[in-house]
Each structure stands twice: as structure tokens, then as C-alpha cells.
Specification:
Radius of gyration: 22 Å
Number of strands: 0
Number of helices: 1
Order of helices and strands: H
Shape: rod-shaped
Helix content: 55-70%
Structural class: mainly alpha
Oligomer: single chain
Strand content: under 5%
């Protein structure tokens, strides 16, 4: 068996880290936009009456 140190692993250059962060932000925004679109489509399909249900 080999021993693993905490220093082993992939080291990103500052440019790679910046690129990864930008990509992660873009993916997060895309997922958030999809959630908003699905919510809006659901409300439209169910009709505006779903927001004013009797208690």
C-alpha cells in the first residue's frame, strides 16, 4: 500500500482556478434559470387559480 500525503494531488494554476470558478458560476446560473423556467411553466399550466386557493 502507498501512503498519501495531503500535499499530493492536482495543483491548479491561478488561471485554471479562475476558469474553474467562472465555469462553476455559469453552471450554477444555468441551473437556477432552469428552476425558474420550470416553476413559471408549472404556474402557467396550472393556471392562476392555483395561487388563490380557498383555505
Amino acid at each position: 500500500m502507498t501512503e498519501h500525503n495531503d500535499t499530493d494531488g492536482v495543483r491548479l494554476t491561478p488561471e485554471q482556478a479562475k476558469s474553474r470558478r467562472a465555469r462553476n458560476i455559469a453552471i450554477g446560473l444555468a441551473v437556477g434559470l432552469l428552476v425558474v423556467i420550470f416553476y413559471a411553466v408549472t404556474i402557467v399550466k396550472l393556471g392562476p387559480g392555483i395561487l388563490h386557493r380557498p383555505m
